Amino acid sequence: MSADPKALYQEVILDHNRKPRNYGELSDASHHAEGVNPLCGDHIHLALDIRDDTIARIAFHGESCAICKASASMMTAAVKGKHTDEAKTLIHEFVDMATGRVTAEDSPHIGRLAVFSGISALPMRVKCAILPWHTLQAAFHAEPSTSTEAGADPIQAPLGDA
To answer: Could you count the other beta carbons within 10 Å of the beta carbon of residue 51?
Structure first.
């Protein structure tokens, strides 16, 4: 018997919202970026310390909705300790899955992040889920900030090489 995907999604979102992993500030970060979703009011700060092309430490903080906070929490847990190339691959897979371009089954590295696979059916919430991922991409490229507003909308703009 398989669990109801909607119930699992809600349970995971609530858990990561109540007890976000890697939440807080990170001193002496080598990379950082700020992400803003004006529509929802999400505003997060992401900091990471990259050593030998590996994400040694990562943290986020800010004010955001439960979906954004859960996505940031799960993202930080998923990429911590990973080579930057692996994290960049995961950015693409997650955004493609969240926007409905591919399924979780078509994303070999997605793992537990598959709980967000149904978010594409909720267009107003997609930006909440992908904001942390675009903020990570911005940090990798030394861009101080990213937004889901108009021309900077990550759903409309290509991800580039991150």
So the answer is: 9
Q: Please report, for the domain that includes residue 65, its CATH number.
A: 3.90.1010.10
Residue 22 in any domain: the answer is: yes
Q: How far apart are CA 71 and CA 93, in angstroms?
A: 14
**Domain presence at residue 129:** yes
- pLDDT, one tens digit per residue, over 36-77 is 999 889 999 999 999 999 999 999 999 999 999 999 999 999
- What is the model's pTM? 0.89
pLDDT tens for residues 17-42? 999 999 999 999 999 999 999 988 99
Split into its structural domains, the chain has a count of 1
Do 70 and 12 meet the contact criterion of CB atoms below 8 Å apart? yes
99 lies in which domain range?
5-148
